[in-house]
Amino acid sequence: MNLRDFEYLLALYEVRHFRKAAERCYVSQPTLSGQIRKLEDELELTLIERDTRNVMFTPAGESVVEHARRVLSEVKQLKDTAQSFRDPMSGELKLGLIPTVAPYLLPKIMPHLFQNFPDMGWQLEEQQTHVLLNLLREGQLDALLLAWLPNEMQGLAHITLFDEPLWLAASKDNHLIKQTGVELSQLDGETVLMLEDGHCLRDQALGYCFSAGANEDGTFRATSLETLRHMVATGRGVTLMPYLAIQEHHQADPLLGYQPFKSPQPTREIALVYRRGTSRIRTLQALADAIKESVTIPTA
Asked: Which GO terms describe its cellular component (predicted)?
């Protein structure tokens, strides 16, 4: 048995389709199928129930997949350790980002990273927080850029990058937009529009809004900040918008207005999250320093 056999098995487990698994591994379907059959013969176990429609893993197959996943993760960590000692800012780094951060932060940081770390290969994954955390814990990602949520991230470590203010977004006809700066308490009685479940920003923003006495519009939940932005512009309600997401729109939107909150501002902590004991801590510290240099956040 060899590591490549484990990669074939894991790919098949994830996609449950021989042709798609072969395409993922850049081999022919007969090659992948033959190597998995050879692995079964070597282990003297049936790992997969095969029929014309489904690929089903036996209990033995499920167990072998988990062992294979751990072996491949350990091998990757070994390679990463060696790479980190040779040159911490070369090789490949797999970075996950949440949708309320990725489209607004990446344009600011990637030119800096390309220029200062030309030997680093970047693999980026945009998903909601719970998906990214699973990928990180399984070793499929090296680090995450997201809003730090201590209760959900036990066993992980982080480097704080910056505290991002949340601004009020509302139709320009809204009375709160016509004044200079607003108090959080002025949201009392306001109707707020929010993102759908699964976005960490939803829970953070709702916490601030509910504490101020606002009420959520339960008939609408946005799938993205851009959808949320357009709905708020209709005057249906207000919302809290991350500072980086409003920079390009602050003066340009004819229907939507933004106001910062007076101190104490609602904020969210944007952090670089990684597994404790990672071999790439020097790489991640250099990445964190570069991000801090690339981003300017106003203070209250």
From this structure: protein-DNA complex
